[in-house]
Automatic annotation (TrEMBL):
SUPFAM superfamilies: Tautomerase/MIF. Pfam families: Tautomerase_2 (PF14552). This is Tautomerase family protein. InterPro entries: Tauto_MSAD, Tautomerase/MIF_sf. The lineage of its organism: Bacteria, Bacillati, Actinomycetota, Actinomycetes, Mycobacteriales. Coiled coil: none annotated. It comes from Rhodococcus opacus (Nocardia opaca).
Amino acid sequence: MPVVEIFMLRGRTPAEIQMITDTLHDALVEAYEVPRGDRFQIVHQLEPHEFVFDAHFMGPRSEKFLLVRVTGGRDRPVLTKRKLYSLIADNVERHGAVARSDVFVIVDNVQPTDFSVSNGHPFDQASLGLPPTTHA
């Protein structure tokens, strides 16, 4: 159930964006063992005044800088997260999208009761086939 938000400066082509989203999803499938069909991604293309980042913090950054935020349903071990970070950087660099130094990844985790994926059911109820919670 990861939801991935990708922040970038405006100006990429649809093909570049597709390649970036595909390579990010490939990393999630491999590192987090996410089912291939479990794909929810939001691309934010921003103007320079809307996407402010330090060009030198912990490495050089260019106008191709990507900030990737992964919101996942369960926490993963540190080694699994490290694998994800590395695969994301490797994948986008290998496909020519950005340099590894231009990739910033944030992983957030939420509890199954913190989101609903369908029909107003909390995720934990929907995944177990339980009826939705009703409130008076």
